Amino acid sequence: MLRNFSIVFVCGFVGGGLREIIELIFKNSAPLATLAINLVGALFMGMAYEYIVQTKHDTSSFALIIGTGLIGSFTTFATFIADMHELMITREILNAVCYLTASVVFGILLLLMGRLIVRSCYHVV
């Protein structure tokens, strides 16, 4: 238990650090940075999920370390909601709708793409 906690802690540190790097790259465009982070996270989550399916990997520790630790700290729903709130109170309704739509639609598509990438690696003839 302490081992898993320590690994999740370290992976969370790495995920948070990666998030900060992307936020620095997109410096003054908060919704764009959050969108990029969440879409990359969706792709990686799909890849992690399909890896578990293809390898029949022990899901408990792998999902905890990668899903909760690395990807969970890299992406954050709270930042998405804060960005949506900011767009709404500044009456940028069209931008808010586009941001919401892009986050959900492209997030699902990238999760599926991540699964397909890993699946293709395991089904190469």
TrEMBL record:
Organism field: Oenococcus sicerae
Recorded topology in the membrane: Multi-pass membrane protein
Keywords from the UniProt entry: Cell membrane, Ion channel, Ion transport, Membrane, Metal-binding, Sodium, Transmembrane, Transmembrane helix, Transport
Protein name: Fluoride-specific ion channel FluC
TM region positions: 29-49, 61-81, 93-113
GO cellular component, one term: plasma membrane
Residues the record lists as binding Na(+): 72, 75
InterPro entries according to UniProt: FluC (IPR003691)
